Task: structure prediction
Amino acid sequence: MSDTFLGMPAFPQAARVALHNTTLRANLRHATHTIRAKRAQAVAELSDWEQLRDAGRQIKDHTLRHLDRYLIQLEQAVTESGGTVHWAVDADDANRIVADLVKATGESEVVKVKSMATQEIGLNEALAAEGITAYETDLAELIVQLGDDRPSHILVPAIHRNRAEIRAIFTSEMAAWGRAAPDGLTDSPGDLAEAARLHLREKFLRARVAISGANFMVAETGTLVVVESEGNGRMCLTLPRTLISVVGVEKVVPTWRDLEVFLQTLPRLSTAERMNPYTSMWTGTVDGDGPQDFHLVLLDNGRTDVLADAVGRQALRCIRCSACLNVCPVYERAGGHAYGSVYPGPIGAILTPQLRGTTSAIDASLPFASSLCGACYEVCPVAIDIPEVLVHLRERVVDQSGAGHRTESIAMAAVSWALRHPSVLATAERLATTTRALHPRRPPGVRAWTAGRELPELPAQSFRDWWKENHR
Amino acid sequence: MRVALFVTCVNDALFPATGIATVTLLERLGVTVDFPAAQTCCGQPQFNSGYRRAAEGLVRHTARAFAAYEYVVTPSGSCAAMVREQYPRLGETSLPKRTYELTEFLVDVLHITDVGAYFPHTVTYHPSCHGLRTLGLGDRPRRLLHAVKGLELRELPGADECCGFGGTFAVKNADVSVAMGQDKVRSAVSTRADVLCAADNSCLTHLGGLIRRQQEPLRPLHIAEILSATEQHPYLPAELTR
Result:
């Protein structure tokens, strides 16, 4: 995975900083609550939502179980239709393949369709190191790129920005990247979109190479699918001469019929639309129409390790709709950057530690960045039991951890022992209740609790003792 | 009918009044209540924190403590959800089938929504996540509250949002936890209810701690304590009898 985020502080520290940013909290609260309500409405319109959800889960599970077979079938179909397939083991591998392909064209600029896979591998930075400039053309990705910022949401990477901030970024940064923002730019959505349209148009018309990801790859025909709202993707996928698509291996589906399920659930769950405005599908190359040179880079980058984990592998069902981010009370308050990964929110908390491992402070803290409220699981269109995977990954962190968690392990073992011996528990309770007048109100060691809350008052008697006195 | 009360460790040690209210309520409805003294904790804190082996020990211990009972009733949606949802994954398949959260037991087993309670106060109800989403308690608690004489139920805005407790989350991610709780308290206060009711004292420990720190005019109260109050034996906290 990209090293852009390495060295991040653990989640609780990063979240604390975000919580004190009142603009960020207001932006996120407004955005997530708006989309939450719209999504609920769009899903409520479906009389067969539960069946679609179950079908989505089954299609993904079936494909993942036979991933080897479907990937070979896909490779064959793409090759037969005029494309070239490359296999990338990790981020470095994929970045090198793409950089070599771009250099072979003699170009030093590429336009990009919004893509999580290329964010994951840090492709823009890798290309920059080779003297190639990558222009993001999705509106939100453009805002992030111009602002020298990081994405904070899977679908809406600039969700942490409000209109006034976007206007300021456009006004000060656009000129350095191409066409400057119009004079007197206001922060009305129409004006901001028009400024982006003018700025991007010259890049679409000039670019000879485009880089995309894909939402789906159909094994039976070798067809790739990009689902989008703005039309920038359509521009990139049709105008340039060379198209390079970097796609995670888990994005394959067996047949066109399978798309029927996901093309219903993805738009409703992500943007709360019945149907997304642009769905582009392409199969290899066609003489005289669209890109004449098509390369598919199939990316592993940890995915087959995830596949090997019986509990964790359900994370690979994800279709990146972001519904789990939008309903997550922790994401809403901590913001996307606190997750230290291009995959924030609940899905990020289970995907990042599996793709990157749990050795760094941030990655080991992610499985704990949840109250396990279950709102994410409830909305997931492919029924990923995120709380189940979070707990599973917590076990992994506990099992691997050394000195840092020593105190906790010992305390947990002692408490668990006492709890298997009711008489010990009863004695401890009696000791606590009889000495309660002496307890300090904010004892040391529980500051994490008392910084914002009072401790509960101990009762005069435990239930256990009351029962003994009154019922026997 | 005879049931075993699974009072839970939190109620045993910190909220005995909830356990006492559950006993009072069930006995009033003609149920014989036993308290198997071997019971301690369901193991959820261990399990959710990643200490699976420690949790497994408590799962076996809890299953043994309640082995003799056909009905096990607990005044905690969260602990009931642990037994129902996680115990089968941890090797115990019998107890989950015999375990009922209190409101579930009242509505589904006893088929009662009017328990004959009297509580002349305004109440807003927070449906805790595990009761709401894992157990699927639905409107059972609110139906029970609706039937209470004198009680005025006020809708809680954003009711289905988590309060931020989340077990060890409350201390491991204390800042986010407190921020979530403050928002929950704010929406509860906006209803101008006297009482913030829930079917889980773990959430109310967190929310109650915030309410007291911020000195809000709101009393956190477990649903069992409301349902156990009657005209003959009313609930009489000083601040509610004005």
